Amino acid sequence: MNIRYTKQFLSKLEDIFAESDYALRYEKGSFKSGYCLLNDHKIAIVNKYYTTEGKISCLIDILKAIKIDNSKLNEKNRTLLLELSQIEIKL
Fold first, then answer.
1. pLDDT over threshold 90, residue 2
2. Closest CA to 57 of 70, 49, 46, 67
3. Residue 57 above 60 pLDDT?
4. Cα(49)–Cα(37) distance, rounded to whole angstroms?
5. Which of 12, 32, 62, 90 is deepest in the core (most CB within 10 A)?
6. What is the pLDDT of residue 26?
7. For residues 4 and 16, what is the distance between their CA atoms, to the nearest angstrom?
8. What's this model's pTM, rounded to 2 decimal places?
9. Cα distances (angstroms) measured from residue 83 to each of 3, 8, 11, 42, 69
10. Mean pLDDT value across residues 8-18
11. pLDDT per position as a tens digit, 69-80
């Protein structure tokens, strides 16, 4: 899968979070990895000052780190999540 660092692709990743149990928020902060993951509350927080590329990379990292119930996702998002789990991100 070829990742395009565009706002449209960012929206597709945000749709996966919208259909899952995790809430996605963009906040300011000095996160060491660019994001903070609160597993107990199922909240993912990404640095809002990141570029589109940075946000996409963070969201992909988060999606690889958390467990999402595939039955709650529509077919397009399920396929995208499967493809994302099989790729390696390099900036």
1. no
2. 46
3. yes
4. 17
5. 62
6. 95
7. 17
8. 0.87
9. 10, 17, 16, 23, 16
10. 95
11. 889 999 999 999
Q: Where are the domains of the chain?
A: 7-84
Question: Is residue 88 over pLDDT 70?
Answer: no
Burial class, 41, CB count within 10 angstroms (exposed 0-12 / middle 13-18 / buried 19+) = exposed
Q: What does the block give as tokens for 86?
A: 């099989």
- CA–CA distance, 46 with 37 (Å, rounded to integer): 9
Q: What are the DSSP calls for the chain, one per residue? A: -PPP-SHHHHHHHHHHHHHSS-EEEEE----SSSEEEETTTTEEEEETTS-HHHHHHHHHHHHHHS---GGGS-HHHHHHHHHHHT-----
